[in-house]
Amino acid sequence: MSDIINANPTILNPSDLPTRQSESRKKQSSSAHIADKISRLPTSKALLYDPFSASLGEDSAYGSGASDQDDDDEDESAPEDIDEQEIYDLISTISDPEHPLSLGELAVINLPHIHVTHAPATPENPYPMSHVLVEITPTINHCSLATVIGLGVRVRLEQALPPRFRIDVRIREGTHQSTDQVNKQLNDKERVAAACENETLMGVLSNMLATCK
Amino acid sequence: MVLKLVGSFPVQPDRVWCAAPHPHLPLVATASTDRAVRIYSLRDFSLVSTIEGGHKRSIRSLSWKPNAKGESVLATGSFDSSTGIWHRDERGAHGDGEQQPESNSEEREEEEEWRFAVVLDGHDSEVKSVAWSAGGSFLATCSRDKTVWIWEDMGNENYETIAVLQDHTQDVKMVAWHPEEELLASSSYDDTVRLYKEDTDDWVCCAVLTGHTSTVWSISFENNGHQSRLVSASDDQTARVWCRKPKVGEESPSQPPSIIKGATDETENWEEQSVLPKIHTRTIYSVDWSKKTGLIATAGGDGQIVVYKEVDVTRDGEPSEFGSEQSKEWEIIAQVPAAHGVYEINSVNWCPKWDKQGTKVDGELLLSTGDDGIVNIFELNL
């Protein structure tokens, strides 16, 4: 990693990053601003179980806004507690493998590109699953570190989220030259499991994840 | 029909990748991320042995050698790029099948009886699957290095590489042998299934099955006399049945196909016959075609286990597609959502049912292994 792949990335001001707390004083960057605003709309319970939640991959940022209580309790009985903002908080603080900046600051991770859905519990299936889709925007379209970044995001979420979550990490359409290839690799359970037994790779990942709160 | 949970093996500390029933004893071996092989009894679902120390990384796959005389032989494939061969002498008084369900001290002795005999090195990266041929003379292994290797058991713990097949363009996920013929199948991250057989002196790829639109995780042959079929399961959330077509010029399709006859022409004609009813909503990681009942089971990332049966359908007044009076169709006869709670299921396998005394009884069990470290045992109630 001696050659820097993207020497001049665009950097967001930390105060522009979406957050649930202290939102009032911050100037928000436009897209994050809207999504953040929406995610803070009071949501009724009924909305959480709306038909949107069944259509994985849909842009469901509006469907599953969250209750405003910001507790870190990942209790299985309260799946509505985990929303896009919480996922953002978990992964935007991951460090970039080549810059001393976070994935949030580099706009690799963006709140509107995180989608969370919760399946309702039914009599047939008392163990409903939740789904999170994270779309990553590499800083440049031939970034060879896209896979490592994606793996970092996946590992972070696998460690932090309860087991009912199914996690899909993808490169955002049109932002990388080998999107399909990277996506397939990032979502292959066996390859991810094997990668997590690779000490060199895990060394890189643990440095990236060291900045997570 | 209902797939009823009849028991579970004691929980393991980490993900269980797969389970394999012993060819003739009431035992099941499991492969785990914690680098251990555990052997359980099918008489009372207890843990019999934990075998550790052979591999440096996850054990991904295992296979019992059929027809091993006087001993049990187990092959293990690991993410450490190696394949291990383990032996246990069965000639003593401890054939788990018939003997007393004994004490802890004996269990400890049994653990020591497992011997890590041979390490087969050769693959460049993780070994994903290992499988013995029906006769037990060949062991196939496959890896992320895109190759399939065939090893011949030369006796006295000597193994010779007789083929390195490099037909796949990506990781090879699984290898499986035909239940009677020396015909090998492999499935891959390149979305295809390939079939291989020996042509004079060389093993060659004799068919490519294309149709899946993503990684093919699992394959299983049917065991039904002269008819040869294979089922495959994929990340595209479908399972497909493939059928071998008789060769053009072959005298009669009713005659059992002979591999000797085909030796001069290495190609085989395989066609997609059907897609099983779509029900899975995530990757299907495993499929198993019961050699006993002809039922197919699938399981995967959505946590469901599904059982399918092939039934005759007569369409009134509707001409059948193939001009025959009746056609066949696969239907779902049983389904268990959340068979491992919220966890993913890595494998399903049919296996014989045994009573407490270690006698094989009527019926068949279905084993499932999950990310929760649990092996569940189901039985289909008619």
TrEMBL record, chain A:
Residues 1-37, 55-80 are annotated as: Disordered. InterPro entries: FSCA_dom_sf, MIP18. Residues 1-19 have a biased composition (Polar residues). Residues 68-80 have a biased composition (Acidic residues). GO terms for biological process: chromosome segregation; protein maturation. Keywords: Chromosome partition. The keyword Transcription does not apply. Belongs to the MIP18 family. PANTHER family: CYTOSOLIC IRON-SULFUR ASSEMBLY COMPONENT 2B, CYTOSOLIC IRON-SULFUR ASSEMBLY COMPONENT 2B-RELATED. This is MIP18 family-like domain-containing protein. It comes from Orbilia blumenaviensis. The lineage of its organism: Eukaryota, Fungi, Dikarya, Ascomycota, Pezizomycotina.
Automatic annotation (TrEMBL), chain B:
GO terms for biological process: iron-sulfur cluster assembly. One of its GO terms (cellular component) is cytosolic [4Fe-4S] assembly targeting complex. WD repeats lie at residues 52-86, 120-152, 165-197, 209-242. The keyword Repeat applies. Keywords: Repeat, WD repeat. PROSITE patterns: WD_REPEATS_2, WD_REPEATS_REGION. Gene3D superfamilies: YVTN repeat-like/Quinoprotein amine dehydrogenase. It comes from the Eukaryota. Residues 80-113 are annotated as: Disordered. Residues 86-97 have a biased composition (Basic and acidic residues). It holds the Pfam family WD40. CDD domains: WD40 (cd00200). InterPro entries: CIAO1/Cia1, WD40/YVTN_repeat-like_dom_sf, WD40_repeat_dom_sf, WD40_rpt. Essential component of the cytosolic iron-sulfur (Fe/S) protein assembly machinery. Required for the maturation of extramitochondrial Fe/S proteins. Belongs to the WD repeat CIA1 family. This is Probable cytosolic iron-sulfur protein assembly protein 1. It comes from Orbilia blumenaviensis. The lineage of its organism: Eukaryota, Fungi, Dikarya, Ascomycota, Pezizomycotina.
